[in-house]
Design brief:
By secondary structure, the protein is mainly α. 64% of the residues lie in helices and 2% in strands. The chain contains 17 helices and two strands. It has helices spanning 15-25, 71-88, 95-101, 103-110, 117-139, 147-161, 169-180, 182-195, 200-226, 232-239, 245-248, 251-255, 261-264, 267-293, 302-310, 314-339, 345-367; strands spanning 48-51, 61-64. It has a two-stranded antiparallel ribbon with strand order 1-2. Helix 5 (117-139) runs antiparallel to helix 8 (182-195) and helix 6 (147-161) runs antiparallel to helix 9 (200-226). The longest helix has 27 residues, at 200-226. The protein is globular, with a radius of gyration of 21 Å. Its cofactor is Mg(2+).
């Protein structure tokens, strides 16, 4: 067995916690990493900073600086994404609005360790499909979202991602329905693209995390339908399973490597990834609060719920959300320092990419028109 001390010479202050971490993975039961592939490279350290947002009058968000801004690559990925959406009939009548939203730019910002347009496109397609299911099924009333129909629609979304075994003529009926709904077609098509670059374990991870996210959407739909007053803590508990963690499960697939399942789901690694995903989605809640408040049946949003629950202004509620975000990012940063002791180049690459995802997502939310209350 390798000498554990050889893996503890990097970050300082890890002490006995690092020894315990190594012992957890060196007990002979869990493979700590697969053979390093050509896609796993040493990345420069991320720089964390207090970053202004919105009009600059709000408290800043603690976040890594954006690693890469490549407008040419972003435009290429975005145009390929729009072509794909047009081919499958997604966002019919709204394709220019979809183009201007710039999901291709989001993915290029959020995956700065990936230069291959096809691998960036797989992440862009999968994210666009998830977002479409959110818009058309769960969130946007004007697009047909209806909490009474949500659960049944999401049950079919699960089948579009993870096809059930054949069941004679009943499968024919299922296939007819899946092929008639552009949202379901987008989920199937995007998942097929992911599968061309992923291992079976990675595909199962994406399927599982999608279903986990949709369970939270069903909770939101039930709350909207009943008119129940939802406490912020209850929403946040659901939101942590409906976060950008779902998008982040694509990081190593797009990057051309794999964090082995028994390491990816190790509790301390999982906690770090969930923290990153939740921090990123709080940024989303902050930017979307005003637009969601204007919906005739507003979706759950941390800022709106805190304001209603505490009887405070939206600004005061947003300040509380900012503080929570900053605490989570600081905790994630500490997680990464601790986990750096584990002898896995794939994990180190993944943790770095999680932080880079935070910085890129912040940049996109600050510049997209998706959350503008004057969007046409």
């Amino acid at each position: 067995m390798p000498d554990p001390s050889a893996f503890l010479a990097g970050p300082t202050g890890l002490g006995t916690s690092a020894v315990r971490l190594f012992a957890e993975l060196a007990d002979g039961a869990v493979p700590v990493h697969c053979a390093p592939g050509p896609r796993v490279t040493r990345q420069p350290p991320l720089t964390y900073a207090m970053r202004p947002w919105a009009d600059g009058s709000m408290p800043p968000l603690y976040c890594p600086l954006t690693v890469r801004v490549d407008d040419k690559l972003a435009t290429l990925v975005n145009e390929r994404l729009v072509e794909w959406a047009e081919e499958i009939g997604l966002h019919e009548g709204r394709i220019e609005q979809f183009r201007q939203t710039g999901f291709g730019r989001l993915i290029t910002l959020a995956h700065p360790d990936v230069d291959d347009p096809d691998r960036l496109l797989l992440a862009a397609q999968m994210n666009a499909a998830w977002w479409a299911s959110d818009d058309y099924y769960a969130d946007e009333t004007e697009l047909g979202a209806d909490p009474e129909l949500l659960a049944g629609r999401l049950a079919l979304a699960m089948s579009s991602m993870d096809a059930p075994p054949p069941a004679d003529e009943f499968t024919e009926q299922l296939d007819e329905h899946l092929s008639a709904d552009p949202v379901l077609v987008s989920l199937t098509s995007a998942r097929q693209h992911v599968a061309r670059h992923a291992t079976p374990s990675q595909i199962a991870r994406v399927n599982l995390t999608s279903c986990q996210m949709w369970v939270s959407w069903n909770a939101y739909g039930a709350w909207r339908q009943s008119g129940e007053q939802v406490e912020a803590w209850r929403y946040l508990a659901a939101r942590q399973h409906d976060s950008f963690y779902t998008s982040m499960t694509l990081i190593d697939i797009a990057g051309g490597y794999e964090v082995p399942a028994n390491l990816f789901y190790k509790p301390r690694v999982h906690r770090a990834a969930m923290r990153a995903g939740t921090a990123a989605v709080i940024v989303n809640d902050l930017h979307s609060a005003l637009k969601e408040a204007a919906d005739e049946r507003p979706d759950c949003n941390l800022v709106l719920l805190v304001a209603e629950e505490r009887g405070c202004s939206l600004r005061e509620a947003a300040e509380r959300a900012v503080a929570l975000h900053n605490d989570m990012v600081a905790a994630f940063e500490a997680d990464c320092r601790e986990l750096a002791a584990l002898p896995s180049p794939e994990l180190r690459q993944f943790l770095w990419a999680l932080g880079a995802w935070l910085g890129g997502s912040f940049e996109w939310h600050s510049t997209t028109n998706r959350y503008s209350t004057t969007e046409t």
